[in-house]
Amino acid sequence: MGEFNNNYYDNNNSYSYQGYSSNDHQNTSSYYSYYGSYNSYSQNQSQNYDDLKTSSFYSESYEKPRKGKIREMLVPMIIVALISSVIGGAVVGAWFQFGAPAVVQNNQSSGNSQTGVQQIKQVEIVGSYESPATAIAEKVSPSIVGIKVTYWVSNYWFGAQQNSGSGSGIIIRSDGYILTNNHVIEDAISSGNEIAKGASIEVILPNQPDESYEAKVVGRDEKTDIAVLKIELSELPAAEIGNSDELKVGELAIAIGNPAGLEFMGSVTQGIISGLNREIQVGNGKTLKVIQTDAAINPGNSGGALVNSKGQVIGVNTVKISGSEYEGLGFAIPINTAMEIANSLISDGYVKGRPQLGVSIDTRFTEELAKSYNVPVGLLVADVSPLSAAYNAGIKAGDIIVEFNGVPVKTFSELENEKNKYKAGDTVTLRIYRIKNTNARGQYDGEYLDIQVTLGEDKGN
């Protein structure tokens, strides 16, 4: 039995709400009663029970619901359930579509702010996993070949001896055309593009180091130190050619070639572009305009490739300044110049349209000698080639060239620079000083002459 006592009022009346479960009677039905009690209450329980049954406020009735009312209750319940299902599904779907991603994003943002340093380290590791030189070498190295030259030399003491040398070359066309330096192969040349008797030029491919292929000379140019060879193979990996006119100082530069012989074939060195449009003197007083780099270039690298960060050939490695006082002074012929010469050699066998004067200059004639002999400073003609432009114009050995088409010239390089501003077939004016006789003091007397010369074509012979 449970009881709740309410003592809120100040009088002595107390009210209780009680539930009974009686087992005293055979009728096991439970009943509830609400009544007031007094302290002097002494009537017996049976009389109280009879009075309670006959009280006017007591009423108990039960009516079985009709089937129609069940249907009336069931239909609204089904409708409510359906509407609730639709609304609930929409709410859940909206949560997964909009709410959940926002929570995940917030969590990720929070996590990123706490682990930002770790992400930077990860990027650094990924970025330094492979250097640019590795990818460049993989791209370009298959296009860089070895060149072996065998030739004979005569010696007063030992007679004829066989010598050999080596260098590098660049595959510029898949049908077997190879670009290299003229000085790599010139010892095996008799004249023009002809290989000397008993001499040979062989090409070694990087993927076939134990096999060589005989090469012929397509053309060569001493002035630019460029030569083109041809081997009878097809489907070779030609190098990608870049644009040397777009180079900037400080760019990445990688040299690929065969330094110190074919034993070190395919060597890769890395540096930067140190300078542009450098002029250096090479054999026979010739001047080359070249690219300067600090990427290591050694004997055997000649004819190999100087490559940019895209794996494009931007120069032909040619020469270095060596010595105990020098470090990192390597030079390459710009690829734009090299390819212009190479294309002309392939199509014509020589550099077409190049002007030729047809004179040999005595470089021993200096400004001091000119003053001592009382003659003008200029270039002393030592010899004139038969049937050349100078020969046809009447220039003779002993003449002193002082101007080329109105421009004063004192050195061979100045004369070459002025001449190369024109093409074969152009007519120019040469001012010369021609010696007539020697006076009593041992000095020369002469006269100035202006001679019209139609420039010939230099075919490289």
From TrEMBL:
Transmembrane segments: 74-96
The PDZ domain, residue ranges: 352-436
Domain of life: Bacteria
PROSITE patterns xrefs: PDZ
EC numbers: 3.4.21.108
Residues in the signal sequence: none
Keyword Methyltransferase: no
Keyword flag Cell membrane: no
GO biological process: proteolysis
SUPFAM superfamilies the record matches: PDZ domain-like, Trypsin-like serine proteases
GO molecular function: serine-type endopeptidase activity
Record key words, sorted: Hydrolase, Membrane, Protease, Transmembrane, Transmembrane helix
Protein name in the entry: HtrA2 peptidase
